């Protein structure tokens, strides 16, 4: 006799509550030891330790540091990936920042992994998987934060990665080939409207860009006329980019925010090597590509003006997120069992940030819920997780209950969502277009 869906959810939530201290501990431990993308060795080791304790088989070193643990159901009519992100962002003034790298969990990815581990605990020894008509694949994914662009571009040159984002790499190397849909969660700011959780919201996409100006060294005081000042080229290029801003339409949400990562070598030498990193963000690919042409032209003009060589490298960033309302419906109903109905928002306005969740969402049904558990600005020294129940415990409950709904009763809901989903791209189209933007 089959066990009811509500009983399976009760077992899952009971197991999460039983392991509450362990789940919070892993979240806090990761928070205290932040690592940047494709370098998350200690964080991945913490994930593997829990999988080892639970007796889960897993694959590690996926896209350098990723970890995947597939949990088998009684049959495999559908496969649902549950993801969490391993990496931190750079915020050197944060109280828990790594003193060497400046990495800090000022974006909540530590809570993603804690929630993922909560799902792992919920499905261990509870008899849940034996009642489901599909598999749940736990994925700890590297490198969501698109930082250290030059470092990652060197990894590309070495053949270790192609994409700078971890989910993009999972797609490329085939780890999503047998996955039918993906669910995950992120944190959001505590707000004054009483909203505790949001079923889903979209995000912008972007291109990554490296600019290098090569000039000619000379003595800064004695013979600057013999040099070609690459920093002047950069100054002109950045100014020319600013002059483009009035041409960006509000509806496209274009954002260009460059940083100079190298401004020269010595103060008494005319700068001959100046480097810039930037994104070109936007709400749709057409607008991003149009803005990119203008930005490229502007940076090139800076070099031309002073006679410096301008080397521009374009890199595939992240695609705008496609919302999947079938998945949102399932998550929304489960969130209402954790909070009062007026504390649950079905859909929020698309955020101005970007995530490689978008890349997954153009290929398969994808959902990322937002749990309001944070005070302070994201990516800043003031970021703090202030509601641990929401950040670590209820995230796990929301994810696992949604996965159960998708795969129970012959995986009826998962199969319906899969049938109704119309991908914007196949994997092959994705690799052939977005993955080749740098060629």
Descriptive key words:
Aminopeptidase, 23% strand, alpha+beta, 37% helix, 15 strands, Alpha-Beta Plaits, 439 residues
Overview of this structure, please?
There is one protein chain. The chain is α+β, with helices and mostly antiparallel strands. It folds into 2 domains: 5-203 and 319-436, Zn peptidases (Aminopeptidase); 216-307, 2-Layer Sandwich (Alpha-Beta Plaits), CATH 3.30.70. Helices cover 37% and strands 23% of the residues. It has helices spanning 5-18, 20-32, 41-54, 109-122, 149-157, 166-172, 230-242, 285-306, 325-338, 357-361, 388-420, 427-432, and strands at residues 59-62, 66-71, 78-85, 89-90, 103-104, 134-141, 181-189, 197-214, 255-256, 259-262, 273-282, 309-315, 344-354, 366-375, 384-385. The strands form 2 sheets. Strands 1, 2, 3, 6, 7, 8, 9, 10, 11, 12, 13, 14 and 15 form a 13-stranded mixed β-sheet that branches. The N and C termini lie far apart (57 Å).
């Amino acid at each position: 006799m089959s066990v009811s869906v509500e009983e399976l959810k009760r077992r899952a939530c009971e197991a999460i509550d039983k392991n509450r201290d362990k789940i919070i501990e892993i979240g806090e431990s990761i928070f205290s030891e932040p690592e940047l993308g494709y370098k998350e060795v200690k964080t991945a080791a913490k994930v593997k330790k829990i999988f080892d304790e639970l007796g889960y088989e897993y694959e590690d070193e996926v896209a350098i540091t990723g970890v995947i643990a597939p949990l088998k159901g009684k049959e495999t009519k559908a496969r649902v990936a549950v993801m969490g992100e391993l990496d931190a962002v750079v915020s050197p003034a944060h109280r828990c920042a790594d003193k060497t790298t400046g990495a800090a969990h000022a974006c909540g990815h530590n809570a993603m992994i804690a929630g993922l581990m909560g799902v792992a605990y919920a499905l261990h020894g509870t008899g849940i998987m034996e009642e489901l008509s599909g598999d749940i694949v736990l994925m700890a994914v590297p490198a969501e934060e698109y930082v250290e662009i030059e470092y990652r571009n060197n990894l590309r040159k070495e053949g270790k990665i192609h994409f700078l984002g971890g989910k993009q790499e999972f797609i490329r190397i085939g780890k999503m080939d047998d996955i039918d849909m993906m669910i995950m969660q992120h944190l959001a700011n505590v707000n004054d409207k009483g909203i505790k959780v949001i079923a889903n919201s979209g995000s912008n996409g972007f291109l990554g860009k490296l600019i290098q100006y090569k000039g000619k060294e000379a003595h800064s005081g004695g013979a600057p006329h013999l040099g070609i000042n690459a920093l002047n080229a950069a100054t002109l290029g950045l100014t020319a980019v600013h002059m483009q801003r009035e041409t960006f339409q509000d509806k496209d949400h274009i954002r260009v925010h460059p940083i100079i990562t190298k401004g020269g070598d010595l103060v008494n030498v005319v700068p001959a090597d100046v480097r810039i990193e930037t994104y070109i963000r936007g709400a749709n690919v057409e607008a991003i590509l149009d803005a990119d042409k203008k930005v490229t032209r502007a940076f090139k003009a800076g070099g031309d003006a002073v006679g410096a060589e301008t080397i521009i490298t374009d890199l595939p960033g992240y695609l705008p997120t496609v919302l999947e309302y079938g998945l949102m419906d399932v998550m929304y109903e489960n969130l209402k069992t954790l909070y009062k109905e007026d504390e649950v928002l079905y859909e929020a306005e698309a955020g101005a940030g970007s995530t490689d969740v978008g890349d997954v969402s153009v290929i398969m049904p994808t959902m990322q819920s937002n749990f309001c558990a944070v005070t302070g600005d994201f990516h800043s020294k003031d970021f703090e997780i202030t509601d641990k129940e929401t950040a670590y415990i209820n995230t796990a409950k929301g994810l696992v209950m949604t996965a159960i709904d998708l795969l129970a009763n012959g995986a009826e809901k998962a199969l319906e969502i899969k049938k109704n989903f119309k991908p914007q791209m196949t994997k092959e189209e994705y690799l052939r277009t977005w993955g080749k933007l740098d060629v």
